[in-house]
Amino acid sequence: MARKRHKRKNSHVVLVTSDAVDAKLKQFRIRPWILQTVIVIFCVLCGTAIGYLFYETEDRLQETTRSASEVQQLEAENQELAARNAELELQLAAQDEKIQILSDTVNQKVQSETELATQLERQSTPTEFPLTGSATMEEIAEGDPMCVFTAASGTMAVATANGTVIAVNDDAEYGHNIWVDHGNGYITIYRNQGDAMVKQGETVKQGATLFLIGEENNKLGYQMMRDNEYIDPMEMLTISG
To answer: What's the domain count of the chain?
Structure first.
């Protein structure tokens, strides 16, 4: 009968010592399968660590590349926005210039219209002298206020402001009378024995001739109404010289 062979068991011995003088030598026996298992686990851990480091490196590299691309894209967008802003600023500047020109034009027009309105109002207010030359004057105390001027031959009786002739009548004392409505509440009345130089309905300018003064008609009666009430013409009359 053959004898059974005993399988030889191998083991690894780990010796542990120290620098102490009286230190004893310690030894540990480790089974081969345990050592193999430890080596395998160590290799797996090392491989995992290396793979993780490689993955992290690649991921960071991709992230860096992506960030650089995004930065370039943002820079391009910023440059485009800057160009648009510059273009808008130019357009705004052009619009501001146009607005300023329009504003100046409107202001000039308003000023011109104001000056024209002021001039028309001044020309429609009966403040001017009713004769083209010098004359003596007396005021009639009785009845409605009236100034009577005595002028030299060749002098003209003129409209004291712009207006419309609303009446040309015969006058019992002065021969004829002319009524001019100035459109602002004022009406002036001119009385003289000469022939009227205007007709009813005619528009007259300030200074327009109404009568031609001669030796036989050298007196001019001048009256003024404001809002249908007679007033003293001297309140409005401007006499220079």
So the answer is: 2
CA distance 115 to 209: 26
Q: Give the confidence band of 6 by pLDDT, cuts at 50, 70, 90.
A: low
Question: How many residues make up the chain in this entry?
Answer: 241
Cβ–Cβ < 8 Å for 209, 156:
yes
Please tell me whether residue 2 adopts helix, strand or coil conformation: coil
Average pLDDT estimate for 160-188 = 96
Q: How far apart are CA 158 and CA 130, in angstroms?
A: 5
CA distance 39 to 48: 14
Whole-prediction pTM: 0.57
Question: 187 and 214 in contact (C-beta within 8 Å)?
Answer: no
Whether 179 and 211 map to the same domain: the answer is yes
Cα 36 to Cα 28, 29, 39, distances in angstroms: 16, 14, 5
- My answer on whether 143 and 219 are in the same domain is yes
Tokens 């030894």 belong to 27
Residue range(s) defining the domain that contains residue 85: 31-123
Last residue of a domain, one of 123, 152, 175: 123
Q: Where is 29: in which H helix or E strand?
A: strand 26-30
Residue range 42-95, pLDDT digits in tens:
888 888 888 888 888 887 878 877 778 888 888 888 888 889 889 898 998 998
Q: What is the CATH number of the domain that holds 208?
A: 2.70.70.10
